[in-house]
Structures
1.
Amino acid sequence: MKKILLLIITIPLVLIAQDERGQMKKYYDAAFQYYLEGKYQKAIENWNLVLKIDPNQVTAKNMIQQAREKMTDLGQKEKEIDELIEKGDYQNALTLTEQLIAADDTNPSFLKTKNKLENIISIVNPDRIGRNKSWGIAKLAIYNYAGKNENLPFAYDAIRYAIEISTKNKTFQKIMDLFEKEDISLKTKDHKPPDTSILEYKKNLSLQYIYNSQFYPAIKEIEEILQLEPYDLVSLKRLGSVYLKLKKYQQARKIWEKALKISPDDEQLKEYIKALDKINESSN
């Protein structure tokens, strides 16, 4: 394929200055190599450099289109893998990852995902995955470990919360051990007191951030609490208050209205929303 494409571009190159011909050949060679390696974005970057020298290079234009189509297909498969991990279907996620590796066996992202899925599969028996709350939290932990948007510190908090709920589940303990082995600092730099629950610790931490006017770290902490306990009324109230301090009134209203659906008779929430109404009236 590469030889054919080089023949196609030979004649147009003759019409270009000697130094530019050399530069274009360099870009073409690099682009084809990246393309063959499955590094489509890098290939596109080099073909675009060709087009800067000669905007009429049809081969470069066509190959950019082909590379974009490849990237779209690749992105869809990566999305499927991520969805499978989120659902807890680790074996099928691994199978699909191995298919991607067969086409691009040097891609570090694919290899990393494969390794993490193999780690999980060695611990988690798919027939033993329950539908209860603790397993839901455990799957959230695994997703934040092996999924596309890796967040190992939160994965560590989540699996510890699952252990708090199901203290006798040995699988959860093994998953926590895996996370600690993956990053020893999770354990060595952990400041949670032994007798404090994960939720209590994260709530206290978010409150400290608010007192210190560190609102964005507070939001991050509270949102993590709500991933673990979506209906935690205290955290919903607190999150709305942080948005209020940031003058993000629409977000505050959205959060408090959600909280009010959980607790329709909560007078404090009603007062919060009335206060937002007054702010809205004064700004009009």
2.
Amino acid sequence: MAEDKQQHDRRLFSCTTCDFTVDYHYKGRKPPFANCILLHEECYVLKDPFSSSGGFVTVGGLCSMCNRDVCLSNGCSLFYTQRFCTNCSVKHIQEFPHELQQEIMHKLKS
């Protein structure tokens, strides 16, 4: 019975760019288990399994343009005032500062 409830309560984050998938505990800007923390964006957060003092790990967020779930890997997304997936950052590259445009182009080459 308890296992059924855990399966029902299970929340799964899946990056739409890569194969990264992980269970998460909270989606939002203020994790209830992390005191005095306000994130700059709505994120997928899991409790840090190695911390006893309310630590957390941010695993992903939403692209601010296409609203797709993306992990925080450099190959999948970037954060510049908001989160952008790789596809949207390439599609709208001219809207980013020159230095960031160079970084986006470098990511494409690698």
3.
Amino acid sequence: MFRKTYQLTFVLILNALSCLAQSGLVFDRPAWDFGTIRETDGPVTHRFVCRNEGEHPEVILQVTTTCGCTTPPIYA
């Protein structure tokens, strides 16, 4: 009995984790490289386009950059 309960619990946890890992967001490009930019060139921008192909609303909580001089604002 204990073994069956343990196995069922394990399967349910794996199922829940696989559901959480699936995202419905699809980006046109997941990353963008501006290359080498001189400060005298002025500001540069790039717009990421994404669409939600999932069944539930998605929320972007964090955007990460590889350079401290980059500010990633998020616009709806």
4.
Amino acid sequence: MLASKKQLGEAGFRGEFHFLSHHACHAASAFHVSPFERAAVLVVDGIGEWASSSLYHGAGTRLEKVRDFTFPDSLGFVWEKLSRYLGFSRYDACKVMGLAAYGDPARTIDAFSRIMTDRSTLAVDQDMLRHESPDFSPLERLFELPRRSEPVDFGVDDWQAYAHVAAGLQQLTEEALFAVLANFDRASYPNLCMAGGVALNCAANGKIVRSGLFDDVFIQPAAHDAGTALGAAILIWTEVLGQPRNYVFTDAYLGPEYGDAEIERILAHTSLPHRKVDVTREVARLLTEGNIIGWFQGRMEWGPRALGNRSLLADPRDKDVRERMNVQVKHRERYRPFCPSVLADKADAWFDAGGGADANKYMLATSIVRPDKRERIPAVIHKDDTVRAQLVSGADNPRYYELIAEFERRTGVPLVLNTSFNDSEPIVCSPQDAIKTFMTTRINYLALGSYLVSRPS
């Protein structure tokens, strides 16, 4: 930052510089755009400047720090090290979370107490964790398993034993989060906002929402480090300029948009067959025939979740589509789950979300599938009978809502399978990105705005 300040000065910039802490930016990114006037705010990640987790009370335009949990005690660092132990990169927490549903936490949770010795303070035995060290021998002795050199997947040696480790890590996380939440004055601050990388743990979030510990829960869609840019801007607005809060997050569609005229010009330079159609009716029909559809509409989503504008869609009733999507399109581990996008006004009949409308709106909390619905939507149910559902309203995304409604009219099922439109790369942003991914995977059709794109004969 000091180098940037010097360089900007040399370029003629004469504005003021303000240092804002990493966790304060996370907290502001959640609380100041939430619908709450007062809320408890929990920030959990690897590390900021010195803090690994922070608690705030938010009221009006003010954020008052309750306490910090400091380096080297870090729940985020535990996830990074264990992800590497299981053969993934340190940033593949979502893959470990998906694997956890296939394990039994009772097999390993006692061992995790050797790593995190006190849930309430997030105290970590550094001799056991050795976060930045390439040495995994303490973990290998603890779990009696060698460190994986490749990611765990179905069929690899001892995959079930490694799944038990992932399950124990997930249970440890949930226990630690509930222990930390006990620090809040919930009588005075009955709602909860969450941010930081660990706030993307949808399984833990779902249990917090369903616990009833707080009246409502808001998680900003870009809860990871990208969200700190929003938080920094808000802190300058409220604390430096003294301005009131004036924005409540209502949807995550904040990225670039491409109209039909621009899409037509781009398609004209390809050899791909395409035609303008009633896109919701045509795509709903194609979904019922077992096709995988690239769905590219409106403004791109803010945050790591595809929420119906840069999505791959399929029929949730098709029990074989998960394997097709994981192996032929996404080229990823076969145990990875897929999510349903469901009509918000029909969701309660299918899922027990326990409230938390905003968390479920942005696909940030799991819900439990109601027993009488489980056999009808096998493609989107995870091993533990949960889903990470997105509740879709007509006000937030009219075209996507109409597509799902048309699918329901044809099938009686008010939801579709939704996953991010990508293949081991960032989510597609432009029509050119979408066309490239369409051509290099086994997606059957591509819906670009009002145009339906087919494969060449």
